[in-house]
């Protein structure tokens, strides 16, 4: 029924282009399921972190109350939340078939994501040099960097994904072939934000409270 | 188009076709070959274990080698034999049973296979590169962290790679079953094998990420100086046990549920009756999966979690016996009053019921936390889980092999040899493992390299080894049967067992697009409905039209190869800086291939209506 | 011609609908930022730990539900299976975290 030309055409897109083809529907469903699995992945990391939090054994280490500086993390949180909103704007324009506006909002999302990642690198660097809080120093360090680092790796991957999609499709506009892909990367981006909300609360805020 | 099917393609072309295929039927064959190979390898390891334990104070193999063999037997059988063989049947059968032309993600399907294969090869390379893992398949922390060879590095990286493949496969099958059922195929009309495949895939989705994390921790601890499981640096070994079993217990159900599905199909077909209590069967399957997630700590009763935790997990574990009992009775009632044909698959199903029931009963025994302190780490437990996994999963896989061989390869396996296989294997199995219950109760610990004379363990161990030899004979007969049938078996009819479900409605061999027109499903056992109420052919649900098919791709192979090379590099990084070349080269290959995949449009192709009409004339 | 105006009319309808949705998204965002500030304030404000921890956890859960239901459109049609899977994942996740925090010898 639908030939190649139809899938790659930017004209007359249906109401929900991300789920208009069977491929799109499959991707949409599969990606949600994948996020369900990611929930367990992060739960294992969170559980391990909580079990090993402030656990130093015979090694020396700084407890979480003294280690974490909240203002920087607060700014990072706001940045990531904002990037979540900007990607919602991107999808909003995708649904209205305003490709250029979508690209603008996704560009802002990428910039915010990159600045988040930059701040995170700065933060890790700070912990390593000021407090000697490293991955290998003690179990607390291992668990902390495993959890927050896994999240950071997800952010980095999300950025690469966004950029690849945007460069690949910059010239040809929105169509039924790439709409599902844009939709998925934005879902992924929200999920990263969801995880961060818990990291902010469980690691940093609760770490400060003790 | 039509001339291509007549000419036999050369060896190179066939090889290339299989390296690049995204067709679920061909991927099923690949899984069958890969899983079958590792099954034989794991069986060989089992034979060495049993030969070493045939006589007291035996010196056939050394202690270190015994530990490696024992570890690799468990790991291979679970991850590299049972899992892929389950996937083989899911690939071969599920899309056909739900009336789909393909799976939801053909590319990922192929990627999943190659990841499994390269992961399995990586793990087994450890034999040649300094020694295999030697701390038991559960890889408990102090053993795995302080083991001096590279064995557990291979374990962590190899299983990580093949685990990614499994996760992809799981997601693929959930989406396929949710999104791609033929018109009229409602959830409550799906064959039970499809149901169990769906539920097992859901379990994969939620269980494997825990393994991913656990294996990452192990890799970090062993190769990157982290301290997750190092108590003197604040680490905690119990975390590994929890994470491993949070994955590991659902894994048991991932394996056994599809086997239940196979038996449900076989029993219903060979009793010529609709499955008794279909909806109860579905409900029991879902319930087993649900409970399956809440019982993992029954592997850890002796850890010292406290009486409350032990009681909760004990009760949850015993509760699983209820839905499983429902299933046992439903199979019995399906046979009740049916006109039963004891073909080979049915023999396996009939053998399975008492065997698995014994495994279930000892399961309830070890679920009693207080009693488990006695059973733990003895041969009683070994006997229990072999009754469940061999009696359930392996019997199911062999039954499925005989049942679906005509569907996959177009030929019926020799019935006479099939029955010989059954009797050798069945009797051998019970000889091997029934006696082990008593060895365990007499105090023989599992995983020990030898036992001493004069402790009344000689006779039991000798009988056990004799049984294992009989199982080996059964397996060899099966192999001979497969070779014989492939060489000079005759092409079977499209429906050799008088089947009930959609996969038997297709011509033999199955066309690569499966269904020329998607069928209309009018109820449970759709083919049977058409046989009894229609003209034996399914009613098409759509007019003949162009069919959209995915393109073959070599990228899955390349991605897996890249990760394999990176894995080798990561393992040997502490020894030499040359390893960095492998790490980087592997990552370039893997991510480069992924990049090509995401940048290059892959729109597939269409088989045109006119060609289909032409082919159609040939088939009739 | 008639067909064309009809589709224009439809476009207009969907645009309005998307705009309406977008309004909720922005409100959601504002509330999430507010919640973050409240949580931050509670921790900085040096209250009792037994008061603060439950509150910030609840705030986090509500924020995540906002993300899931509004930003990720879980409230829209055709999201039954995704919801089922996400909440099954949450179920497994909760069990995992519960076990690792209570029965791991800590």
TrEMBL record, chain A:
GO biological process: aerobic electron transport chain
Annotated coiled-coil segments of the chain: none
GO cellular component terms, A-Z: plasma membrane
Membrane-topology descriptor: Multi-pass membrane protein
Pfam families on file: COX3
Heme-copper oxidase subunit III family profile domain boundaries: 1-208
Keyword Membrane: yes
Compartments where located: Cell membrane
Membrane spanning residue stretches: 31-52, 72-92, 104-122, 142-167, 187-207
SUPFAM superfamilies reported for this sequence: Cytochrome c oxidase subunit III-like
GO MF term (any one): cytochrome-c oxidase activity
Family to which the UniProt record says this protein belongs: Belongs to the cytochrome c oxidase subunit 3 family.
Protein name: Cytochrome c oxidase subunit 3
Source species of the chain: Salinibacillus kushneri
Lineage of the organism: Bacteria, Bacillati, Bacillota, Bacilli, Bacillales
From TrEMBL, chain B:
Transmembrane regions: 28-49, 69-94, 106-129, 154-180, 192-218, 238-263, 275-296, 308-333, 345-371, 383-405, 417-439, 459-483, 554-572, 578-596
Family matches, as SUPFAM superfamilies: Cytochrome c oxidase subunit I-like
GO molecular function: cytochrome-c oxidase activity; heme binding; metal ion binding
Keyword Transmembrane helix: yes
The protein's Enzyme Commission number: 7.1.1.9
GO cellular component: plasma membrane
BP GO annotations: electron transport coupled proton transport; oxidative phosphorylation; respiratory electron transport chain
Family to which this protein belongs: Belongs to the heme-copper respiratory oxidase family.
Function: Cytochrome c oxidase is the component of the respiratory chain that catalyzes the reduction of oxygen to water. Subunits 1-3 form the functional core of the enzyme complex. CO I is the catalytic subunit of the enzyme. Electrons originating in cytochrome c are transferred via the copper A center of subunit 2 and heme A of subunit 1 to the bimetallic center formed by heme A3 and copper B.
Protein name in UniProt: Cytochrome c oxidase subunit 1
Organism per entry: Salinibacillus kushneri
From TrEMBL, chain C:
Keyword Transport: no
Transmembrane domains' residue ranges: 24-44, 50-72, 84-105
GO biological process: aerobic electron transport chain; electron transport coupled proton transport
GO cellular component: cytochrome o ubiquinol oxidase complex; plasma membrane
Compartments where found: Cell membrane
Membrane topology classification: Multi-pass membrane protein
Entry keyword set: Cell membrane, Membrane, Transmembrane, Transmembrane helix
GO molecular function (one): proton transmembrane transporter activity
Listed InterPro entries: Cyt_c_oxidase_su4_bacillaceae (IPR014257), Cyt_c_oxidase_su4_prok (IPR005171), Cytochrome_c_oxidase_bac_sub4 (IPR050968)
Top-level lineage group: Bacteria
Main subcellular location: membrane
Pfam families: COX4_pro (PF03626)
Family: Belongs to the cytochrome c oxidase bacterial subunit 4 family.
Name recorded for this polypeptide: Cytochrome c oxidase subunit 4
Lineage: Bacteria, Bacillati, Bacillota, Bacilli, Bacillales
